[in-house]
Design a protein that fits this description.
Shape: rod-shaped
Strand content: 15-25%
Largest sheet: 6 strands, antiparallel
Strand order of the largest sheet: 2-1-6-5-4-3
Helix content: 55-70%
Length: about 475
């Protein structure tokens, strides 16, 4: 029984330990997945807000610059200019310089440019530019000087198709006034050139080429840059990711992805810029938030393990306490069993002895009665026999009372009847009971009492007999 209890407790403890390890491993795995999901959600929300902020900043800056270009037209109205002479050119040049522009030009409906200040600029997507200007719209575009400097150009419709516009050489019809400044000013205005921040922002065209970038990126294409980093990192699905990015740029929709840049995983978020065909690409290192969430996750895991350890120690203490209590109960049960066995053995011995003791007074009573019957004519002998019969009867009664006293002993209700008796009389009575049986077996039994120091004692005479 003891070995079975030990085996059961050991198996139970090991099983409980395995269960706790399994449960907490599952919790740790779940926490890891939740951390990644939380990281992507937090970064996505943050970068969406950053992109929206840059979009609004760009839109505000574009509106402001368009207003500045319109201010040139208001300062020098086309209807007040009869000829594009040197005075008019100087006035337009000063108005442009006052508003921070380094390039100013008039464009005809055929796309011929009359540069008023700055270098000649070759327009990107000149056809789209002319369509917008000839339709009376506004447009932000790029141009490149002969020296290779990229210019950010703001064009507004002046003249065709709404009015006459500024006079141009050769009788051409004026359709637009275009003012601009180097693209670097856009990077500075949008804080794209700050290299000590964790977030990098680029502006790209639909084909992936950079309009503005804030890091020294060797490739001229954002697509080639991301694809090259992905292949160097060993990312197998980088081509699929780039296909999704191209589609998002072409359809001018927002797109989020996680790609390796510079040997580490980073979050990239793409969003279209208003009033242009460009897309803003914001890149943020993943490691910063990863480390924070990993630290938080590790703290959760260690806290869970500490809680598990405390629970296991508490359960171990309970098991040990239960084992000790069970062991004590087993010892007490064994003692009780041995005590019960001894009690049963004592009862058996008592009943065995009692059966023999009962036969002794019964035989005395039967024998004395028979002798008294044969000597009925001898009164003195009959009287002596009757006395012995009476004593034997009392002795028999005391034996019966002893049997009844067994239940009193077990319940603790046994009482003694104390009285003053003579030891000599007790011995004489016992001899009187035993002698007839011995005489019947033709044996001799006598007791000689000598040197009695105290004959009379105070005790329970019945139980003494």
């Amino acid at each position: 029984m003891y070995k079975k209890t030990i085996w059961f407790l050991g198996v139970s403890f090991v099983g409980l330990l395995a269960l706790c390890i399994g449960v907490f491993s599952a919790i740790t795995n779940l926490m890891g997945r939740q951390n990644n999901a939380a990281l992507n959600q937090v970064v996505g929300t943050y970068m969406e807000g950053m992109s929206t902020h840059i979009q609004h900043h760009f839109e505000t800056m574009t509106s402001t610059q368009m207003i500045q270009v319109g201010g040139i037209v208001q300062a020098i109205p086309p209807e007040s200019v009869t000829a594009l002479d040197q005075t008019t050119r100087e006035r337009l040049k000063r108005a442009a310089a006052y508003r921070g522009f380094v390039h100013l030009a008039l464009y005809s409906t055929e796309g011929e440019a009359e540069v008023l200040c700055g270098e000649d600029v070759a327009l990107e997507n000149k056809e789209i530019f002319l369509v917008s200007m000839n339709s009376g719209d506004k447009l932000v575009t790029l141009g490149t000087t002969a020296g290779g400097e990229m210019m950010l150009l703001y064009g507004i419709s002046v003249g065709y198709p709404n009015d006459v516009g500024y006079p141009m050489p050769g009788g051409q019809r004026c359709t637009a006034l275009v003012a601009g400044f180097p693209i670097k000013q856009l990077s500075d205005a949008l804080s794209l050139g700050v290299d000590n921040t964790l977030i990098f922002t680029h502006i790209i065209r639909a084909d992936g080429s950079f309009v503005a970038k804030n890091t020294d990126i060797p490739p001229d294409s954002c697509y080639d840059w991301i694809r090259g980093n992905g292949r160097d990192y060993g990312l197998e699905d980088i081509d699929d990711t780039m296909a999704e990015l191209r589609q998002a740029v072409e359809t001018r929709t927002e797109f989020s992805m996680v790609v390796p840049i510079g040997g580490e995983m980073r979050h990239a978020y793409c969003a279209p810029l208003p009033n242009t065909e460009w897309t803003i690409v914001t890149v943020m290192p993943r490691g910063v938030l990863d480390e924070t969430l990993t630290t938080l996750g590790n703290q959760r895991v260690w806290t869970a393990l500490a809680g598990c350890s405390i629970i296991m120690l508490a359960m171990l203490a309970i098991f040990l306490g239960y084992f000790r209590l069970s062991r004590q109960q087993m010892v007490e049960l064994d003692k009780t069993r041995q005590k019960a066995e001894r009690a049963n053995q004592a009862k058996s011995e008592f009943l065995s002895n009692m059966s023999h003791d009962i036969r002794t007074p019964m035989n005395a009573i039967v024998g004395m009665t028979a002798i008294a019957t044969t000597n009925i004519d001898k009164p003195d002998q009959v009287k002596d026999y009757l006395r012995k019969i009476t004593f034997s009867s009392r002795y028999l009664l005391s034996l019966i009372n002893d049997v009844l006293d067994m239940s009193k002993i077990e319940s603790g209700k046994l009482t003694l009847d104390m009285e003053l008796i003579s030891l000599r009389e007790v011995m004489d009575n016992i001899v009187s009971i035993v002698q007839p049986q011995i005489s019947a077996k033709k044996q001799v039994f006598d007791i000689f009492i000598q040197d009695i120091r105290e004959e009379r004692v105070y005790c329970d005479g019945v139980r003494l007999n």
